[in-house]
Design goal:
This protein is about 0% helix and about 40% strand. It is an all-beta fold and about 325 residues long. It folds into 4 domains: about 70 residues; about 90 residues, Immunoglobulin-like (Sandwich); about 80 residues, Immunoglobulin-like; about 50 residues, no CATH class. The strands form 9 sheets. It has a 5-stranded mixed beta sheet, with no helix packed on it. The C terminus is likely disordered.
């Protein structure tokens, strides 16, 4: 009784649809994965038949000496439970652009299916991108949880889908330090904004915050006077918005040149045959309160000069 054509009819008050099948060697015809639709649309949840002309109707027209035969069975349609597929978002950084979410539902193409809903928490960290569907927008640094759900609500043809939630971290953004290499200064000149002129920003936007300048472990500031030499100036920027921005550091090289000194000898006169007078020299242009080793800046310093030996004359 193999290969006999059987016609199955799905019949409801909304319409009907025929599905063809053939019998196997045991004389059994099977239909699987058939769409529960008729010419009137999707078959709603419920039980149809087998009374009257509703239900699943099976018929054989008769062939090869076999008589025609028909039968009916109840058609029971249960609510569909959608399955949500949601790919976990990767870690983000504050300031990153909105991004699409890899989320879908097995009932996504069904007419009349309940909507797939996305919720974001907390709202201070992430929310929905207003410019694109199924996309997220970063609001602040922290930990964001996005939940995908599909509730049937009053739709009797569907059951609630199992919600899927993913949590991911949004790290603080690191500011960018801009700091031009300062020109060399001369000993005695105090540090100013020309040397301590670092600025911080992110994405081309300046950031508010405080700056701590240092050389090694020592703090320097406007007004600090450094000895002559080479230095590596460092800066640590602490943003006002510490919730969303991390601290940042930078450094530049600075050279402090030696300051020049003025040495002036006091003019004096000597009479021939008289002992040499004391010669005096004055040092000037000291800065930063510095002095000569023997006294305050500008104090005279004397150094005696030896009288040259008299020339010898031979008498004959």
């Amino acid at each position: 009784m193999a290969d006999r054509p059987i016609t199955f009819t799905l019949a409801t008050a909304g319409g009907s649809r025929d599905i063809g099948a053939t019998t196997d060697d045991a004389g059994v015809a099977t239909v699987s994965a058939a769409e529960l639709t008729t010419d009137g649309g999707a078959i709603p949840v419920g039980t149809y038949g087998p009374t009257g002309s509703w239900g699943v109707l099976a018929s054989f027209a008769g062939a090869d000496g076999c008589a025609a035969v028909a039968g009916a069975a109840a058609l029971t349609v249960t609510p569909r439970t959608p399955t949500i597929t949601f790919t976990a978002p990767t870690a983000k950084t504050y300031g990153d652009a909105p991004f699409a979410l890899g989320v879908s539902s097995s009932a996504g193409d069904d007419l009349g299916a309940p909507a797939l809903t996305l919720t974001y928490a907390p709202a201070t960290v992430c929310d929905a991108d207003p410019n694109a569907a199924a996309s997220a927008r970063i609001v602040g640094a922290g930990r964001c949880t996005i939940t995908a759900s599909q509730s049937a609500g009053a739709n009797a043809n569907y059951a609630d889908a199992t919600a899927v939630a993913h949590t991911f971290d949004i790290t603080k953004a690191t500011p960018v330090i801009a700091w031009e290499l300062p020109a060399a200064i001369t000993y005695g000149a105090a540090l100013s904004a020309a040397q301590l002129g670092a600025s911080a920003g992110f994405g081309g936007v300046p950031l508010a915050g405080s700056y701590r300048y240092s050389i090694g472990m020592s703090t320097v500031s406007v007004g600090t006077v450094l000895p002559a030499g080479g230095y590596q100036l460092g800066v640590t920027f602490t943003p006002t918005d510490g919730d969303n921005y991390a601290s940042a550091t930078g450094e530049v090289a600075l050279t402090v040149d030696k300051a020049p000194l003025a040495v002036t000898a006091k003019e004096t006169k000597k009479v021939y045959g008289v002992a040499l007078p004391t010669f005096e020299v004055t040092y000037g242009l000291f800065v930063n309160g510095d002095t000569v080793q023997t006294g305050s800046a500008g104090a005279p310093r004397s150094r005696p000069l030896r009288r040259p030996a008299a020339p010898s004359v031979a008498m004959t």
